Automatic annotation (TrEMBL):
Record InterPro entries: Elong-fact-P_C, NA-bd_OB-fold, Rib_uL2_dom2, Transl_elong_fac_P/YeiP, Transl_elong_KOW-like, Transl_elong_p-like_YeiP, Transl_elong_P/YeiP_cen, Transl_elong_P/YeiP_CS
SMART domains xrefs: EFP, Elong-fact-P_C
Translation elongation factor P/YeiP central domain residues: 69-124
Highest classification ranks of the organism: Bacteria, Pseudomonadati, Pseudomonadota, Gammaproteobacteria, Oceanospirillales
Domain spans labelled Elongation factor P C-terminal: 132-187
Family statement drawn from the similarity comment of this UniProt entry: Belongs to the elongation factor P family.
Alphabetical list of Pfam families matching this protein: EFP (PF01132), EFP_N (PF08207), Elong-fact-P_C (PF09285)
Gene3D superfamilies: 2.30.30.30, Nucleic acid-binding proteins (2.40.50.140)
This protein's name: Elongation factor P-like protein
NCBIfam families in UniProt: PRK00529.1, PRK04542.1
Amino acid sequence: MPKASEIKRNAAIEINGEAYIVRDIERSVPQGRAGGSLYRMRMYNVATNAKIDETFKDSDMLTLADLSRRAATFSYTDGDEYVFMDSEDYTSYSMNKETIEDELPFITEDLQGMHVMVLNDVPVALDLPGIVELEIIETDPSIKGGSATARTKPAKLSTGLVVQVPEHISTGDRIKVNVEERKFTGRA
């Protein structure tokens, strides 16, 4: 049983016999309190998709839901449904656009290291690798000697995501993007 401070986004936890997927975590440290941090978690019920917000102390022990992680690749879209294929047994998992909205700017057909979280044979969330490689499709021209300064410029990536990149990066370059922070981390 992990502590509340060890829970990450897209983790599945069990509360009162119900399974919830953690979609967002805010950490706060109240002033003048002996103790620790508070973790406010926004969670969605796996069965009903009902939203709840709960606050836990960093030392609270939480129960993980019985969730399996299946290695998968993106297959195709069908309207608002995104279909992923299991890399081992070729099972297809269909997920609604709203469910995976935060992950969509990072999903490409050649993305490696992606997992579909499955609970009771139902896909409930995606788990992406920490860093993904994406291609820049639009940015201002690169500036010679731009690597000597810390100035940045916006760059639109192949998935539509816009991140700040150093001035020496140009259109057509492949870059690494941190999924959690949505930031440029280096050239691919």
